[in-house]
Amino acid sequence: MKVQFQTVLYHNAPDALKASLESIATARHLALEKGMDVEVTLAWGDSTEPPLFSPDTLAPLQEAFADDVLLTYAAFHMNTGTSLGHNRLAENTDADFLVLMNPDILLAPNFLVRMLPAFKDPQVGMVEARQVPIEHPKVYDTATGEVTWTSGACTMVRTSCFAGLHGYDADSFFMYFDDVDLSWRARLEGWKLLYDPLTAVYHAKALDEKGQLTVSTADRVYSPEAIMILLYKYNWMDALEETMQGHLRSPRKTDREAVERFLRRKEEGRLPKQIDPDHRVSCYIQKDPRMNRYDTKVE
Predict the structure, then answer these.
(1) Is the CA virtual torsion 266, 268, 270, 272 positive or negative?
(2) 85-109 burial: b if 16+ Cβ within 10 Å, else e
(3) How far is CA 134 from CA 114, 201, 211, 214, in A?
(4) pTM over 0.85
(5) Rg (CA), the chain
(6) Which phi-psi region, left, alpha or beta, contains residue 190 (left: φ > 0; alpha: ψ -120 to 50)?
(7) Of 225, 204, 191, 211, which Cα lies nearest the Cα of 154?
(8) Residue 79, exposed/middle/buried by CB under 10 A (0-12, 13-18, 19+)?
């Protein structure tokens, strides 16, 4: 089996990237010990300008891990965002599976050992691991592991599933909620999505002094617009109106500016085609104020 891990870089610390690379190598080691014949590639796509690595600075990493991981590197010379960056990295791959992951992810050693067997079911298109120290808030079926969407922070995807969906909707989502959209489109095509709580990945999240999840600058800038686009695309018009009004009342300038950008997209005809009018796969329950996210349920 061939597995391509792929990460879009943007001003990341090289030491953190090396730690992530080491965790991938360790996961492959354990898979080999368990008798699994797995070839592993790590594809880095760099949106930083100037690029983080030169051939001279990349070569030592490639050589140090050459026995375990084929490390490839592409400098995009533009800020692609996560969606377009991952789509580019997935082009022309011969891997059987992709692992779409953030650069701040560290894998548990049993990652490949646990994740790959789930794909013996040909209907399974995506499998997500549990995130620690803060578990990603979502509901899943404890009997089957089925879940309505998987997080782009770290999800293994069958390459044929990703290619059949033409990857992320990069025209609509720069980053944030692109993973929800990809998941829902996969379910519309009949793919099954699973969550494995016994496979953990470390995701560098933290709580502030009030016990609230810290929110990055990128999240504050891109997330408010992305959720409106998602709600529009999946015909949740009442929820969209509620969200827009909430953004307009928000004390944060980034929320109010997001509404302006969304309305400009609408005027220019740049919103995505609306799908799933009967809400067969999309599900809106309520806003989670801790995460600025919308939870989903398994139906």
Answers:
(1) positive
(2) bbbbbbeebebbbbbbbbbbbbbbb
(3) 20, 10, 12, 11
(4) yes
(5) 19
(6) left
(7) 204
(8) middle
Pick the closest to residue 38 from 28, 48, 46 (CA basis): 28
For residues 45 and 72, give the distance between their C-alpha atoms in angstroms, rounded to a whole number: 9
CB neighbourhood size of 242 (10 A): 15
Q: Which pair of structure tokens corresponds to residue 175?
A: 């980053």
81: left (phi over 0), alpha (psi -120 to 50) or beta: left
The bridge status of strand 124-132 relative to strand 154-158 is: antiparallel
Q: Where are the domains of the chain?
A: 2-203, 217-279
Long-range contact pairs involving 204-212 (C-beta distance under 8 Å, separation at least 24): 204/16, 204/104, 205/131, 205/133, 205/134, 206/134, 207/134, 212/290
DSSP 47-62: --SS-S--HHHHHHHH
Alpha carbon 120 to its chain's center: 22
Contact 193, 140 (CB under 8 A): no
> What does the pLDDT look like over 165-222, one tens digit per residue?
999 999 999 999 999 999 999 999 999 999 999 999 998 776 677 766 677 788 888 9
pLDDT in tens, 50-89: 999 999 999 999 999 999 999 999 999 999 999 999 999 9
- Residues 6 or more apart whose CB falls under 8 angstroms from that of 175 comprise 81, 82, 83, 218, 222, 226
Terminal C-alpha separation, the chain: 33
Residues whose CB is less than 8 angstroms from the CB of residue 34 and which lie 6 or more positions away in sequence, other chains included: 113
Q: What CA–CA distance (Å, rounded) separates 295 from 38?
A: 35
Minimal CA–CA distance to 152: which of 214, 84, 95? 84
Fold of 2-203: Spore Coat Polysaccharide Biosynthesis Protein SpsA; Chain A (3.90.550)
Q: Tell me how far apart the alpha carbons of residues 149 and 158 are, in angstroms, rounded to a whole number.
A: 15
Q: Name the phi and psi angles at 285, rounded to 5.
A: -110, -70
